[in-house]
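User: quick one, sequence for these tokens?
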């Protein structure tokens, strides 16, 4: 099944899980992968879905052997394993990344709808990202809204700083990329 058909079927079945009206565009994928490449080392992706951001990471030069994906949906996992046979795909929640990934990761890229999640789950996911990230490495996240995808009080409580990246108008809906770092 192609990416778009799978996305649409999953969206119709469970819109809250998908939290998007269309798959991420290649332009958003390129913006999320900006600055990443062979020198980044290991990269982890949370919530890859059909793999649109994964394609952007690979196109940026991230080695398939250095890329690990965390996806909860079994159908997406099966699709990702077929589409990216050299990439490690974990059928686990992102909050459990530290159970299977050694610290020192060069970047965590997330397509998860953080703002639509309960606060404890959202914070568990962000903490898991920083448990595996190298000290100066980013958590890269996008959002469709006008503010960062983590509330200011969460950013402060978790000891993070945020940098706004590009606004990607060629995405449905338009999205902005943010990078979170340890403060």
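Assistant:
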């Amino acid at each position: 099944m192609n990416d778009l058909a799978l996305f649409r079927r999953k969206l119709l079945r469970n819109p809250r899980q998908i939290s998007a009206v269309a798959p991420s565009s290649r332009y958003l994928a390129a913006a999320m992968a900006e600055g990443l490449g062979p020198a980044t080392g290991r990269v982890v992706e949370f919530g890859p879905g059909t793999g649109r951001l994964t394609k952007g990471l690979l196109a940026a030069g991230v080695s398939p052997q250095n890329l690990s994906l965390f996806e909860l949906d079994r159908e997406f996992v099966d699709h990702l394993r077929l589409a990216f046979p050299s990439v490690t795909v974990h059928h686990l929640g992102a909050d459990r990344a530290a159970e299977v990934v050694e610290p020192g990761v060069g970047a965590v890229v997330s397509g998860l709808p953080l703002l639509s999640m309960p606060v404890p789950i959202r914070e568990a996911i962000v903490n898991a990202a920083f448990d595996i990230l190298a000290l100066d490495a980013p958590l890269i996240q996008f959002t469709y809204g006008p503010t960062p995808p983590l509330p200011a009080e969460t950013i402060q409580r978790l000891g993070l700083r945020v940098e706004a990246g590009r606004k990607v108008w060629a995405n449905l809906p338009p999205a902005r990329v943010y990078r979170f770092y340890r403060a």
